[in-house]
Amino acid sequence: MNNKTVIISCAGIGSRLGRNMPKALVPVDGKPMIIRTLELLDNVNDVRVVVGYQAEKVIEVVNSYRRDVTFVFNHDYLNNGTGASVSLAMQYAKEFILTIDGDIIIHPSDMEEILKMNTEFVGVCEIGTDNPVLTKVKDNKVIAFSREKGEFEWTGVTLLKTKRVNKTEGHVYFMIEPLLPLDYKLIRLKEIDTPNDYEMALKWVKNNYR
Amino acid sequence: MKKIFLFDLDSTITKEEILPSISKSINKEDEMRKLTEMTMMGEISFEESFKSRVDMLKDIPVSEVAEKISNISLNQELVKFLNKHKDICYIVTGNLDVWIDKLMKKIGMENNYFCSKASVSNNKITKISKILQKDEVVAKFKDYIVAIGDGSNDYKLLEKANLGVAFGGVRNIAPSLLEVCDYAIYDEKRLAEFLERLIEE
Fold first, then answer.
1. Contact assignment for A71 to B183 by CB distance below 8 Å
2. ipTM topping 0.90
3. Chain A contact for B197, CB < 8 A?
4. A4-206 domain in CATH 3.40.50.1970?
């Protein structure tokens, strides 16, 4: 498990949700999303949280759960994307990077499986959000990302060999595209972009992830 | 490219604030702590505050201050790192040469530190002859600079370094530092591990 650096991106503003706080700090069933993610990563020693918008608040909440997280600063978060956050955080990382967006909740059993994996994959889920990035699949491999068509939705979760990844300023999937085709892994998760997503995620968590 | 590591001393290498802990012995701790706090938060300039803090302690024999400073508790994981990588590590502190020389020797950094300087006569400080500007130190090297610090007087040091790490293991990182650092780490062991990774690559 400790051949992985886990990168959680929490730098963005998340304005579509309309809360005055980083999305990772929004409580779902009484607990900030970032804490829900950290609880699944107790056995990972190299956890990196990328901060930008309201960095101090994010740091305070994370430190209240564990003190040994490495915070990576994306000072230019207003002008760049999650890919830039990952690019910053993957410097000096372990053999693999596992990327996770700060605004998702992953099914605990799926996270457990993910942490045991030692081959690269693209994390996908059933299509569910309003404006998804889709993945095209052929012969059980992801062959492309697309805004128009695809079998699954891209999740922001991916396990990649650190040395193979090139930096980007844009989306995380830009970093994956040159590496395709890659295996995919179907993950049960909720992404929270809008108030509607939030209600769905809340229901899901309260109903024991069903 | 070769990497050089520049470490702040106070509450980065040491586990407590040096001057406030010295001021205990002359019952000026409150006054000193207040000044130190204001300086670390950037409310008064380092030069101004450092002069008044030295002034507060100037009646204590220099050798006594040096002795006390050499016994201050330290972040051992970081001291281990310094010792292991002696050739590429330096201490950068606004503190005075005559006060910290013993501590520098104790942690094996006697030839690897940049600091402020004072003249001494009869075991008493007579004059501060130089106050160190931390960012000047960065310019002395042509290498890739990694700087580690916690207070607002480390702002320029971290800003000018190629890679700035704010360390919050002893006290809260100064808010201004969070605006220029590349990383913030709050656990001593994690910091030591991270710095090791920087050397490996």
1. yes
2. yes
3. yes
4. no
Distance CA A117, CA A190 (A): 21
Q: How far apart are CA B151 and CA B171, in angstroms?
A: 9
Per residue in A53-103, pLDDT tens?
A: 999 999 999 999 999 999 999 999 999 999 999 999 999 999 999 999 999
Evaluate whether B67 touches B103 at the Cβ level (below 8 Å): no
Which residue reads 């910091």 in tokens? Answer: B191
The model's pLDDT over B60-80, given as tens digits with 9 standing for 90+, comes to 999 999 999 999 999 999 999
Domain boundaries, chain B: 3-200
Chain B residue at shortest CA distance from A74: B182
Distance CA A181, CA A142 (A): 5
For residue B60, which amino acid is it?
A: I
- Whole-prediction pTM: 0.95
Give strand pairing partners of B7.
B91, B148
Structure tokens at B143: 């290498």
- Say yes or no for a CB contact (<8 Å) between B186 and A68: yes
| Domain at B3-200, CATH homologous superfamily | HAD superfamily/HAD-like (3.40.50.1000)
Among chain A, residues having any CB pair with chain B shorter than 8 Å are: 51, 55-56, 59, 63, 67-73, 75, 88, 92
Domain range annotation of chain A? 4-206
End-to-end distance of chain A based on CA atoms, in angstroms? Answer: 27
| DSSP-based three-state secondary structure for A189 | strand
List of chain B residues whose C-beta atoms are within 8 Å of the C-beta of residue A92:
194, 197-198, 200-201
CA-nearest residue of chain A to B188? A68
